[in-house]
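Support case: user asked for a sample of complex input and structure output to validate their parser. Sending the pair below.
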Amino acid sequence: MNLDHTQILALEKYYRINLINQAAGLRSAHLIGTQNTDGKTNLAIFNSVTHIGANPPCLGIILRPLSVRRDTYNNIRATKYFTINQVPHDLVSEAHHTSAKYPSEISEFDKTKFTPTYVDDFPSPFVQESKIQIGLSYLEEHEIKVNGTRLIIGQIEKLILPDEAVEDTGHINHDLLQSTVVSGLDSYYSSKKVKREDYAKPKDVQ
Amino acid sequence: MNLDHTQILALEKYYRINLINQAAGLRSAHLIGTQNTDGKTNLAIFNSVTHIGANPPCLGIILRPLSVRRDTYNNIRATKYFTINQVPHDLVSEAHHTSAKYPSEISEFDKTKFTPTYVDDFPSPFVQESKIQIGLSYLEEHEIKVNGTRLIIGQIEKLILPDEAVEDTGHINHDLLQSTVVSGLDSYYSSKKVKREDYAKPKDVQ
């Protein structure tokens, strides 16, 4: 298959959505937890969490303000806080169900097995069943002109994970945590560590 | 482990880099191919490719202009084109080696087993050994204020992958293609499909 831009645009809509989403490769599945100013919680699955930097520690997410995840965006803007939570393999179907289009007044926490939990004084709900829980404060956002999606940058204010999953070097054992990856919007994969590479040094440079 | 922002900043530097990079989860490893205006090629490994949209088909990458990947950034800006190439499991060590700090006049194609290949009239080199080859044109960029990293958006101009890896629905069989995922900068994982979920519909809404 060798498609150019025009041929891609001519594809049937859902075929194109699947193909382009999945061509981008596999990404971690995460649950984003928020609440509105009245304390109503929301939980949504995302596959767009990206590392931005370690000092200060920041992550980014891509979201579509006009899609089902509008609640997430509105809540982040209103409260300035959100959580990013890992998805263990055994809860994939529950995590996927958060993509169903519930009205804003219904919390996905009430329609899935996930339990909202509050840690110290952090103002957004974490997912109790997640093995990595990250609390972030809203830092900045960028509107992507081509299609109106937004990149939201959050600063890590809380990082919670099991001690036994963190090695002396700071590496995280995702096999132990059974972290889930996803291709596109619906195809979930497990992962298994193959190799840790050494810091790469140039071969003989003339 | 329950760390707040101040405690994260107090961590030893490389421990913090590993911990924060890996807490963000697993992401596909990709090789980005570029060349400068003299035709000198460059190849660099990235873990930050993100789906931006399917219509028009666009992907994003996060990069640090002042890191080892400066050649990639300069070449994209100068030529307005780049390629994103999948990494099969059996070439992980070769792909990782592109992160070694070679001077600009040395091409990583000459220091690894990867072969530059040109398809039709697309002006940047694809990686012949990659099972998914994507050619993009530069569309826009956003500087992330907190640390100067940049989000580059490219429009997909070419999409090349084996017919047998694409299902009738547009879903891609990453098991067949042996796509690699990576945690942080050095920990490579294989993946295996667990389940394709149906489109999620709300349970009884009162």
